[in-house]
Amino acid sequence: MIIGLILKFKGFTQIEPIRGKLEGYLVFEKESINVDGKLYSLDEINKIRLTNDDYSGKLIHTSKGNIGPALSNGTNNSIIIFLKSKETIQSHFELINSNDFQNIKTILIEYYLKGKIDFDELRNLLGAKNRAETKELKEEITEISTTANRVDGSVRS
User: What is the pairing mode between strands 56-59 and 45-51?
Assistant: First the structure.
């Protein structure tokens, strides 16, 4: 029992090993998505589905009897791109920090405004959990949408 407790406490600070190999990059750009060197224009994309529920160091495996690593390696995230050609592109990716998608917030909002991501998915990706955060996100979307509709620095009325 003592050995089990020692192993459990040791595993509490360890990150689970990556099974397989991480290759390539996932890059979100204003007009395209780059998946492992292959560029997909937003014009050829019908819908995008993203999950970002995992990040490196997330506490998992806290149940009784588990003596392995208690921290996630951050690779349980995926993107599915549905192309207009009916082709589907799917990839898994690693997140280092839980809020990494905040770094590309304006790009994700542009994807939403172009109908590529649903609002609930956008809200989840950006971590807007309560009513106040959702309201703030909606206001930011309105601001970006209004800015995009300006012509020569003036606002259309």
Answer: unpaired
CA 98 to chain centre: 9
Asked if 91 and 77 touch (Cβ cutoff 8 Å), the reply is no
Contacts of residue 102, defined as CB under 8 A and 6 or more positions apart, other chains included, come to 126, 127
Q: For residues 28 and 75, give the distance between their C-alpha atoms in angstroms, rounded to a whole number.
A: 18
Q: Hey, which residues does 33 pair with through a beta bridge?
A: 28, 40
DSSP assignment string, 26-91: EEE-SSEEEETTEEEEGGGEEEEEEE----EEEE---STT--S--EEES--EEEEEEETTS-EEEE
Tokens of residue 29, six digits: 């750009």
Burial state string for 30-48 with b = 16 or more CB within 10 A and e = fewer than 16 = eeebebeeeebebeebebb
In tens digits, what is the pLDDT along the chain, a chain of 157 residues?
A: 565 444 445 444 555 656 667 577 899 999 999 998 999 999 999 999 998 887 676 767 555 555 566 667 677 788 999 999 999 999 988 877 778 889 999 999 999 999 999 999 999 999 999 999 999 999 999 998 888 665 444 443 3
Q: How many residues does the chain have?
A: 157
